[in-house]
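Checklist before submission:
- one chain only
- standard amino acids only
- sequence pasted in full

Submission:
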Amino acid sequence: MVLFINAYLFTMKNLLLSFFLFFISVALFSQNPIIIPGTIEDSNINLTLQNGTFQFFSGEDTATMGANGPLLDPTLILNQGDNYNVNITNDLGQDTTIHWHGLHVSAANDGGPHTVINPGATWNPQFTVLDKAGLHWYHPHLHMQTDKHVSKGIAGLIIVRDTEEATLGLPMNYGVDEFPMVLQTKGFDASGQILVHTDLDTSVMVNGTVNAQVDFPAQVVRLRVLNGSSQRVMEFGFSDNRSFSLIGTDGGLLTAPVNLTRYRISSGQRADILVDLSSDLGQNIQIMSFASELPNAIYGATQPGMGAGATASLPDYPNNPLNGTDFQLLDINVVAQTAAPVLSIPSTLASWTAIPESAADITRTLTFTSAGAMGNLNGPFLINGATFDMETINYTIPLGNTEIWTLTNQTPIAHPFHIHDVQFFILDINGTPPPAELQGFNDVVLVPGGNGVVRFIAQFSDHANDSIPYMYHCHMLPHEDMGMMGQFLVIDPAAAVTVNNHFDLEVYPNPTSSGLVTLRSNEYKGIVQVFSTTGQQIETFTINPNQTKELRLQSGIYILQDESGNCERVIVL
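Returned file contents:
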């Protein structure tokens, strides 16, 4: 009897193991037709953020979030110069925001963490598209909740068209010869629910499709690629190592195609890619991430950081089979051409001139450090020694300024740095001019770990606001949520503005051309600090109620803060 029971248990154990291995093999090797998100091409855009369920794996319901559906968002196709009226209704039952990542819109319309959409409320941003043709995206940006809301599924592409692009003969038939590709990796718990802030993001998907498969026509095909992962850097390429043409980066088209076999794309970055399949009818190829080729100190490489013990500080990282290993993103069958195929790749693309370094008005320096021990990759990570504070304006930038930002990364891991409002040109990476594929418009740049330095130049044009800031931050979403973020105001020097004026202090005349201003306190008693826009402290003094103080300053813009550092006024000379 005992032998029978033991034999029975042994048989059941092996049977359960067989079923487990079967389901694993199905999950690994079955293919699913790729989802192509729908589009909205109207000047009036209505989006409803909602909860839902989605089956990433057959028979397994997963709680998700999306816009106008259970997962992901419609692709918005916008035209340069057109005006758009957007209504975003929040039916999630919790606060959120929507940020237009890459679009050059005003701070009030940008959708950062200060522009909260409460449950049941509708946010109504309105803007004119000023951007050149390019690929952007939209996603939530609520402080400490960004990773959760994006991982759950709220992410959508924005395609901007312009007249210049229309003359180039590029594939522009969405879903036919122009394909959206939102690349993501996600982690799931034992009950099939999405994990947030996880290093076990072992499931690979394109447009929310696990084990994605697609039919591409035997012609020139355009891929509009977004790395929408929370953290993972991908080394994009094809399984047969074929050459492809990069024609655009974050903010728009390059001046000419760049032929590559690999393109490194970090979280938040986009790529506009052409691949010529005209000679490949009937062939089967794969789009891969060649993670085995990633150098150390990049999230997704074998070794995520530099220095002894770096891997050990991310306990689940060594257990993730994607790290340091090549993996498939998309399986492609090449089928018959469409009725009007594009069969050639143009030799020239957009016309623009990079901003010369000599045009800069100022250089700002941002240093990345870790609040933990050296070699710790768990963070929290800091920018200029501070974590994000909703009440602190880190920089005040005059409208029209051209600025160089120097990013120094003293942590052991590379960080993808993103800035709102502007597109920038990379001047150099570790002192070397950027390669051809990084010489276009960018709003994300991967800053190397271990004292890596990136310098970029940008112009802050068109939009000023004296109270609503733009953000800059690491686009590894767990790092952002933990406070690796800062904010800046763009102000118009020609306007006498008051910024977060919670302390009763008059400044007159303001603006002034004489260099002499008078400060008068009505009821405020305490310390007043005077800073330049670069953060240099010019003067500190104590003032009492009904007291006046004269300041003589050189021409420029100055910030007055109370002793808490949170309340500010602007002096313009």
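Reviewer check: The domain at 505-572 is CATH 2.60.40.1930 (Immunoglobulin-like).
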